[in-house]
Amino acid sequence: MGNYITHYVVCNLGILKPLYINKSLSNVKILVIKSSINGHQSQTNTLIEYYLNQRKLQGYKDSVIEHDVESVPLPVLTHQRFHALRGAQTDDAELLSTIQLSDQLIAELKRTDILVLGAPMYNLNVPTQLKNWFDMVVRAKHTFFYTDSYPQGLVNNVKALIVSARGGIHQGQPTDAITPYLTAALGLMGINDVHFVYAEGLDMKPEGYLAGVAKAQQQLKDYLHIDI
Question: Of 8, 182, 188, 203, whose CA is between 20 and 30 Å from 156?
Fold first, then answer.
């Protein structure tokens, strides 16, 4: 797990800063989480790179941290890890390492301005690898706390951009479990400004694939002009 921390890629993918924004925001911090099992062949990853390169073409220079949680997997939540992350006393070295990793991932999230999540659809939901990231950062007393009525988020001033490639057409359908899950999980932490970009119909080749990618690219261009 210690190697995971060094997996940062800082400002060497396509670097950048968005849109029509306040010029005082000259160093927008971007946190990218990739989770596709398809690596460089992933359409979700390719679209994320497209978005970052579009930002670079705008002439902005942001700070980018990237984690590929498929290449460098995160711990899977277990009974022991769950309770350790919620304050149970432990002197177990592995659990202490998990807590330290979670602390760092949460610190990254809280420092960022834009969270870019790659969430390709596998069997109607997010990849297991992305769920593992959420299990490390959705943490009581750290990213949310309980009240007498409803949990309150502790992650402030963070926007989220979700890029999700799918083989079929699922947006707005009961078969899309990704959108409600990510909206709820991010909202629990206080991230309520969430924008989804869908690349759909990619297995409907060739026309569906080309149309799905082109539509997603246009949506990403449009997102460049959303004031943060």
Answer: 8
Is 97 assigned to a binding site?
no
For residue range 215-228, what is the model confidence (pLDDT) as tens digits?
998 989 888 776 44
Q: What angle (nearest 5°) sits at the alpha carbon of residue 61, between those of residues 59 and 66?
A: 125
Contacts of 202 by beta carbon, 8 Å cutoff, 6+ apart = 43, 165, 166, 167, 208, 209, 212, 213
Report all structural domains of the chain as residue ranges with CATH numbers, in order of start. Answer: 2-201 (3.40.50.360)
The answer to whether 50 is annotated as binding is no
The verdict on whether residue 1 carries a ligand-binding annotation is: no
Residue 187's nearest CA partner among 228, 164, 159 is 159
Q: Tell me the pLDDT tens digit for each residue of 69-100.
A: 999 999 999 999 999 999 999 999 999 999 99
